[in-house]
Amino acid sequence: MGLTENHRAELETIFSHYPDRRSALLPVLYLAQREYGWLSDDVLREVAGVLELELTEVTSVAGFYTLFYKEPVGKYVLEICNDLPCALRGAEKFVEHACKKLGVQVGETTPDGLFTLKTVMCVAACDRAPVMQVNLEYHENLDEARFDQMVDELRHSAQLSAGSGQPAIDEQKPQTDTRSLTSEAES
Predict the structure, then answer these.
(1) How far apart are CA 94 and CA 72, in angstroms?
(2) Which of 1, 18, 60, 148 has the least C-beta neighbours within 10 A?
(3) Would strands 76-81 and 115-120 be described as parallel, antiparallel, or unpaired?
(4) What is the pTM of this model?
């Protein structure tokens, strides 16, 4: 099943917000990534077809933005800021701890497919470092204990939901202090 079959109503809603289909490229790429987990060549071709665009247009936009994944990632993408202000507040040590806890290096995915660990430059939360995004949701003022708790909760949720009809693990939220860009703007 493709985007058109699975998300017809959502696509129509997206299209209604833009003067033409080309303008809907970013939201449709996000929808495709949410549906498939990452943007393979086949998915990019599908998006181009849905939007009636040339494949090169879609590929160039997807390649420009780092939040679009061009290779498989875990259900949870953990992005730790390691820019200079965050480094001064302990980000390097925090990244080392995350690698040890997850048993992977930066850029790798855990063998169970749950976590991909990345470092990023500036998520605009320097005063609340160490800071990490989990699937774009902010987790601030982290320490090793809170990181370990979050990872353990996400693993536990994934084990409980496997085959149980519960929400997919990417819809589960850890029980730690979080803020998103949207909630920040609404405050």
Answers:
(1) 24
(2) 1
(3) parallel
(4) 0.74
Tokens of 112: 């169970």
Token output for 161: 């939901």
Task: Indicate the CATH number for domain 76-186.
Answer: 3.40.30.10
Per the structure block, which two tokens stand in for 53? 């665009």
Q: Which class does domain 3-64 fall in?
A: mainly alpha
CATH 3.40.30.10 residue ranges of the chain are: 76-186
Which residues fall within 8 angstroms of residue 20, CB to CB, at 6 or more apart? none
Tens-place pLDDT, residues 58-117: 999 999 988 899 999 999 999 999 999 889 999 999 999 999 999 999 999 999 999 999
Q: Order of strands across the sheet with 137-139?
A: 115-120, 76-81, 132-134, 137-139
For residue 179, pLDDT over 50 is answered with no
